[in-house]
Each structure stands twice: as C-alpha cells, then as structure tokens.
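User: Please predict the structure of the protein below. I'd like the answer in structure-token form so I can feed it into my own downstream comparison script.

Assistant: Understood. Taking the following sequence of 92 residues as input:
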Amino acid sequence: MSTQRNYYRMTGRVQNVGFRWTVRQLAESLGLTGRVRNRRDGSVEMELQGSPAALNKLIKNLVEEQTFIRIDDTYSEPLPLVDDEKGLMVRF
C-alpha cells in the first residue's frame, strides 16, 4: 500500500465548529498522521499522511457528512513524506 502526504487549506465555516477535533478523530480512526491548525485568515490548514484511500475518505467525510462544518473551497498539494510521525497534532 502506498503512502502519501498532502497539504490542504480549507475555507468556509471551518473555525469555531470543532473542525480540528473532528479531523483528529477521523485521522486517528483512519490511521492518518500529520497536523491541523487554524489560520488567522479564518481558514484551516492540514498536513495529512497515510494511504490515498484514507486521505480521500477523511476529506469526503468533512465535505459531505458534517453538520456544523461547511467547506466552500479546498486547496491541496502533495508534500514529501515525514518519517516516524506519530498521530495527529492539533495546533492553535
């Protein structure tokens, strides 16, 4: 199984709605690692690493299955893998 790491920046109703904690819970359940943090411009950015299927499942869940989160736009780009990363860090 291949592993990839992607950077994501999402805009919409993504702050003050439990977005980062939702990402953490989903990432842990899918075996993803990385980090997520709020940006001063009101967006949220993430670096996530894992299988392409797990990454796609997390993004699909955020876009389609969350009640309080509304994603208007998503930017993503591939990143180099990070070796020996453990868990998902929520930054403030």
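That's the full token string. The mean pLDDT is 96.
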